[in-house]
Amino acid sequence: MKKLGHEDGVDIVKVDIEGGEFEVIRGWEERYGADGPPTCQLLIEWHERFLTGVGAASAARRDAEAALLRMGFTPLHCWEGIQECVYWHCARCAERGEARDVDDVQ
């Protein structure tokens, strides 16, 4: 990222990895802690259909969204038909001179 001039992170990260999003979010929390990954916005396509076991999908999604909240990401909008959601890190975006809270972007 430094070679490309993104020392402070990137503006948006799209996560569409066919069920791997749950592991990626766990990894982000392990690596970055409460700071989360260095981005203002996350666009996540949830693929719960790849998880097996009774209640596994809803538990994994609930755990992943709780981790996103702990890392400072607020849900902004979800498209239910395609299971895609945008999450916003207000404090990080404010540091970059972007919208300061979710209401500024709606």
From TrEMBL:
Domain Methyltransferase FkbM residue range list: 9-30
InterPro entries: FkbM_mtfrase
Pfam family of the protein (one): Methyltransf_21
Name the record gives this protein: Predicted protein
Species classification: Eukaryota, Viridiplantae, Chlorophyta, Mamiellophyceae, Mamiellales
